[in-house]
Write a structure and sequence with these properties.
The longest helix has 19 residues, at 114-132. With 191 residues, this protein is of the alpha/beta class. Helix 4 packs across helix 5 (136-143). The chain has seven helices and eight strands.
């Protein structure tokens, strides 16, 4: 605990790795409170999406209720457990599918599958409403029903993340290298 305290004093940001099955665990709560004490910006990474019992949305709920944070899903999973195939990026509104045969080294960027479009639109709306609070121009565009530029959304997410106003949440499975690239992109874009 003392070593974690020392580390948190000098960190610019942190990635909180959460288990898609276990959710928020007791040690996570302890470290989260320490990070709150030092006002450390965080990104949440829901790992092990390929495990039996994986539930991304339950973990996001736990981040809000157990940790008292303001989570913001910037991705939603495509499938879960053994059918986890990729993610929908809510910022770009594109789908990312990883190739199993290359252990996630290669992936395709496509349009969002039709069966996920409504869910993606719903979570995109939540994302835009959240970032509109941090950028008047986004709020104006959103209220007028106009398209909000991707770079403006990224800038607003970055601003709110570094000010510890909310925690962007992404997902993947590190063991199979699915979603790790998007996590690294999120660190660069929002930290």
């Amino acid at each position: 605990t003392v070593e974690v305290e020392r580390s948190l004093r000098v960190l610019d940001g942190a990635v909180t790795v959460l288990c898609a099955k276990g959710g928020v665990e007791p040690q996570t709560e302890t470290v989260w409170r320490q990070a709150d004490k030092y006002n450390v910006p965080r990104i949440g990474y829901v790992n092990k999406m390929d495990r039996s019992g994986a539930n991304f949305f339950e973990v996001v709920r736990q981040v809000k209720e157990v940790l008292g944070a303001n989570p913001l899903a910037i991705q939603i999973p495509i499938g879960a457990e053994e059918s986890f195939k990729g993610v929908v990026d809510l910022v770009t509104m594109k789908a990312y599918f990883w190739h199993d045969e290359t252990m996630g080294a290669d992936y395709d960027v496509t349009e969002i599958p039709e069966n996920l479009r409504a869910e993606a639109e719903e979570y995109r709306t939540q994302l835009l409403e959240a970032v509109a609070d941090f950028d008047d121009e986004i709020m104006e565009l959103y209220l007028e029903g106009e398209q909000v530029p991707t770079e403006k959304i990224r800038a607003a997410i970055r601003k709110a993340t570094t000010q510890v106003k909310f925690v962007p949440i992404v997902c993947g499975t590190s063991y199979k290298n699915k979603g790790v690239q998007k996590l690294l992109d999120a660190i660069v874009d929002y930290m």
